[in-house]
Automatic annotation (TrEMBL):
Organism: Trapa natans
Protein's UniProt name: Aspergillus nuclease S1
Enzyme Commission designation: 3.1.30.1
Lineage: Eukaryota, Viridiplantae, Streptophyta, Embryophyta, Tracheophyta
Annotated TM spans: 12-29
The family this protein is said to belong to: Belongs to the nuclease type I family.
Assembly: Monomer.
Keywords: Disulfide bond, Endonuclease, Glycoprotein, Hydrolase, Membrane, Metal-binding, Nuclease, Signal, Transmembrane, Transmembrane helix
Keyword Ribonucleoprotein assigned: no
Amino acid sequence: MHRIGDGGSLWVWRLLILLQFVSGILSWGKEGHFATCRIAEEYLTEDAKAAVKELLPSSAGGDLASVCSWPDEIRHSYRWRWSGPLHYVDTPDFKCNYEYCRDCHDLGGNKDRCVTGAIYNYTKQLMDFNHGCYSTVEYNLTEALMFLSHFVGDVHQPLHVGFTGDEGGNTIIVHWYGRKTNLHHVWDNMIIDSALKMFYQSDLNNMIEAIQSNITDVWFNDVSSWRNCAANQTACPDPYASESINLACKFAYKDVTPGSTLKNDYFRSRLPIVEQRLAQGGVRLAATLNRIFASGPKVTTT
Ligand code: ADE
Ligand code: ZN
Ligand code: ZN
């Protein structure tokens, strides 16, 4: 046993701080993913609801939102390290546009290993299942559903489509009010956390309800265009990534330099962007799952 203040507990504290930092560099934080998936659940067709229910792990208790952060929870373990680059896609420094062929690769240059590539890949796996080409040996479709649901959230976080040189804002140290953090973490967590405290009585359900009512009134006329996907395509992550890098340039990186203190002005002007991206992520995840499971799984009988 280590006593508080001795060398052992200092290491435990260092480890905890490191883990907090590391978990922060991944994606929308837990709240963002929960909100996106909770919003998506509202818009699922009966066919999609049935397929999702069939594929969810029993630990989910039938609730997609409860497993939407799973890819962040496992990605540090040795077994899942390959999945790290699938959470984001970065553009060359200061390029405010996104191109699949130029940008979708990992640090080793392996093509398709990025968030948009992953969305195409997991959509295809789930489509095969829906068309009766289900092979348990080849794919684990429970994992495919959880990865797809998570990555549709991630591609809507503007700094998950950021610049290569600063790792989507991860290496830009800033202060959020009094607290030292980095720009990426501000967009994954801090804006949402501050909004919860300031406007939503620290209750995520209140924030989700506010976003849902914006979807049905303020953004009502835009929602059908959010769902648009090129004819004969099931998943459309490329336009979402283009929107994200555009928002990263116009709002996330704008007026920020290393060492900046970000507070009220930044918070007030960026929160509406965060809320709209959570809404779009949810509506589009549902639209994608609805297209994948359009006619329900085809059961092959012999
Ligand atoms: N690592 C490198 N770039 C990243 C990004 N845009 N988002 C999250 N992690 C990253
Ligand atoms: Zn992620
Ligand atoms: Zn992140």
